[in-house]
Amino acid sequence: MSGDRPAEQISVELIRIDECPNWSDTANDLRGLLVELGRDDIPVTVRRVATGGEALAAGFAGSPTILLDGVDPFPSGGPTGELACRVYITEAGLRGRPSREQLRALLAERFGR
Question: I want to staple 55 with a disulfide (CB 3.0 to 4.6 A). Which of 5, 60, 85, 107 is the partner?
Answer without folding.
Answer: 60
